[in-house]
Amino acid sequence: MGGVKVVEVELRRIRMPLVAPFRSSASSTLERDALLLRVVTPEAEGWGECVAMAAPTYTAEYVDGAHHVVRTHLAPRLLAGHDLAAVKGHPMAKAAVEMAVLDAELRAAGRSLKDHLGGVRVEVDAGVAVGITDDLGALLDAVDGYVAEGYRRVKLKVQPGWDVEPVGAVRARHPDLLLQVDANGAYTLADADHLARLDAFDLALIEQPFADDDLLGHAELARRLRTPICLDESITSAAAAAAAIALGACGVVNIKAGRVGGYLEARRVHDVCQAAGVPVWCGGMLETGLGRAANLALASLPGFTLPGDVSASARYYDPDLTKPFVLHDGRLAVPTGPGLGVTPRPDVLASVTTDVERIRPPA
Ligand code: NPG
Fold this sequence. Notes:
Layout: E1 8-23, E2 28-40, E3 45-50, H1 63-79, H2 91-109, H3 113-117, E4 123-125, E5 127-130, H4 136-149, E6 153-157, H5 164-173, E7 179-182, H6 192-195, E8 206-207, H7 215-224, E9 229-231, H8 238-247, E10 252-255, H9 257-260, H10 263-276, E11 280-282, H11 289-299, E12 331-333, H12 346-352, E13 353-359
Parallel strand pairs: 5-6, 6-7, 7-8, 8-9, 9-10, 10-11
Antiparallel strand pairs: 1-2, 1-13, 2-3, 4-12
Helix pairs in contact: 1-2, 4-5, 8-10
The protein binds N-succinyl phenylglycine (NPG).
The site of N-succinyl phenylglycine has 15 residues, from loops.
């Protein structure tokens, strides 16, 4: 993102109904209230999607806050040609700005995000995240449906009171399924013996069992469990990944560009993990087709050896904002066109937009 001239930044809020509600220990969502960015350069325009949710329950960021920091601090700096690194924190807001600028630059250069990041795969295995349900029957029905659709990996959300029993029930019904769980930090080290009961189910990993700053707790748990520990919220940068790996706090890393401040830092997290022999996978944040396209580009890098939370559009949206991503034999094609390789469909975009604001450099 070196010295590109941006002449306009558009901030657009959208509200998209979810195909099915999504519930975890960190959030409960019926519709996606998201911030989109469109940047205009003399040569092209580019789209960015901010993954911050309505409430600050996953990490500290939330969509109104991200909107404010883009409008007040990031867009003016971008339009003035200044570095965004001077602004502390706000990785999801920065990632959205970077995504839009990268898209514009790559479109002007006729180069795909996949090639720019160093992607090597033309398609990636699709995984799906299944939220907490009202009862076991609803969970088993949901998992059966996704397995029938061809998903190659299932992740179950867990929390205290919803763990050993539902995970055991899914495992009994699907003995060979690539299965993993995600706690979004809902446990503490005092739960270690209880969590060790999950070892019976041959899980690929347990994701973020403890609070994001508890690297030592995760390292202790890793010594007590056979199931590999994967970190999500804890991994805020390539430096954080290096520290977590050195401490023995994780054997697997979930990479989300929004959480680490952008796709370029996400690639650096990938590089750190690959050098350490730590497998990575691409997380998801209920992205529209724009973010989904970028996630597919990221997931095409060589170190992404585990299926991620990159699902078909239909898992979340109908219609999607872009041409829908569809499963073919449990896989999704990585876009190959310039930039993200996709753009919003004007009719859908118009129908989901709740607010638009354009910022230009001061005259
Ligand atoms: O498939 O996009 C997806 C969602 C995958 O479970 C998923 N995301 O904690 O990883 C997570 C969770 C999440 C969703 C977190 C929304 C924050 C917001």
